[in-house]
Each structure stands twice: as structure tokens, then as C-alpha cells.
Amino acid sequence: xxxxxxxxxxxxxxxxxxxxxxxxxxxxxxxxxxxxxxxxxxxxxxxxxxxxxxxxxxxxxxxxxxxxxxxxxxxxxxxxxxxxxxxxxxxxxxxxxxxxxxxxxxxxxxxxxxxxxxxxxxxxxxxxxxxxxxxxxxxxxxxxxxxxxxxxxxxxxxxxxxxxxxxxxxxxxxxxxxxxxxxxxxxxxxxxxxxxxxxxxxxxxxxxxxxxxxxxxxxxxxxxxxxxxxxxxxxxxxxxxxxxxxxxxxxxxxxxxxxxxxxxxxxxxxxxxxxxxxxxxxxxxxxxxxxxxxxxxxxx
Length: 300
Hints:
Blueprint: E1 5-12, H1 19-27, E2 45-51, E3 54-60, H2 70-84, E4 88-94, H3 102-114, E5 118-123, H4 130-143, E6 148-151, H5 160-169, E7 172-173, H6 188-203, E8 213-223, E9 229-239, H7 242-249, H8 254-271, E10 274-283, H9 291-294
């Protein structure tokens, strides 16, 4: 009988490179917020993949960027801390890069310092010519002895098994750390908060999303008149300015209704039951530098 393997795999990369899309692809479930905005992931989210002879625990880390607030500093600290505990690193870069940019070089330095086994994934290969891709691969191969270099498109499911097969090759013998039914360490409350935040990220203007966070104030399971399970969820979207509050609520409350409707539909699909969602918007001006709030985003 084949020996059981397991390991913790940290996914690293710059902001907006496709890490959350990749972890959702590998796990086969929606666990990480995806939006075409930088800093979508704020905490280290764990996704679990169970295979016949292996358990892989993926850690989707915040993207590396220039910090402006305590929150940003915490996000970067979380990314680099998770690197130290990893059995294997997935370094995700974009095929559209002509050379090793400053952000990628910084991550590469940290990988070199940690001397971790690393697989290089080159995402968005559908956007470049083969010659450009080969040139980029050569540059990276000179910098570090990667276990493997795999060009992919994180949007295409055909790459899932290619990546997982390669990862399994490099894992050490070990136990299953989580039950085989689990696919994330996030609680239902955290998944609900992430879902609402993702919808807000997708719908709101450029400057607003980075200044919001979502807090579930009430989450209660009950039976409705038809004896069906239903979650009553009350959530607050916090923002940093009064003007942002107006944008989030929108004319006649339309934007907030839209965020709530999209979040409710996705939660009902993910949780497999009815959701009664109520949302409010409140201003909390300095939360980005509030150590008590920022502490919630640290690697647990």
C-alpha cells in the first residue's frame, strides 16, 4: 500500500497575480475572495486537498506590495511568516512580465533565505507568445533551483491535476492533519465575511475597497415555516470615510442591496441552505492602523 504523504504549501506572489484563483482551482471550492483589485486577500487562508495517498494544506497569502498602513505591514508579515513554516512553496508569477520585477525579486530573496523547495508557476500564459515565455523561464532558472517550472492558466481546470501531481511528488511521508471532509480551516462566519467583502470589492469604485472590512454581528440557525434550515446573518461593512459610506449604500440604497443580493446567492450555494442577510454600513476612520483590528489579520 502506498505511503501517506502530507504537507503545508504556501502560495506566494505579488498582488493581483492570481493566487486566490489558483487556490480555489486546486481546492475545487470557493474559499478565497477573488476580485480584480490589489490586496484582495488579507489573511492566510488555508485550503485543503485530499487525494488517495496525500493531504495538501495550501496557504493563500496576501500579495506582496508596498505598505501604507499597519494593515499592509501585517499582511506582508503574514506572507513571509507562512514561508518559514512551509514544507513546499508555490511561487506564482505572471507570464506577461518581461523580466524579474522588484516585487518578484523581493519574494525570490525571501525564498533563497529560507532555502525552501519551490515550484514556479507561470500564470496567464494565454496572454503571451511562446518565445517571451521561454525567455522568462530562463531568467528564473538562473536565479533559483526550482523543483519544477509549470506554465499555467489558473482559470483553466485542466491544469489542476498537473499541479497537484507535481506537488505530491515533493511531499514527505506524513499524517492527515484535517478530516478528509474538510476543505478549509475557515469558519462559516469567516466565509460569510469574505463573501460579502468580495462582492463589495467587485462592485465598488477603486479607492473604496481597501478601506473596508466586514464583521458578522449575528449568525443564527433556525427553521422557517416550511421547516427548512435558514441562517439569519447580520453584517456590518466598515469603511474609513463618510463619503465612502454614501458610495457603499448608493442611491436609494441600491448598491448595498446589490452587494447583499450577490453575497446571499453565493452563500446559499456554498452553505446549502437559505440565508436571510441584513447589512449595514458604518464609518470607522482609523481602523487600518488600529492594532486591535489589524491583529485579526495576523497568521494564526
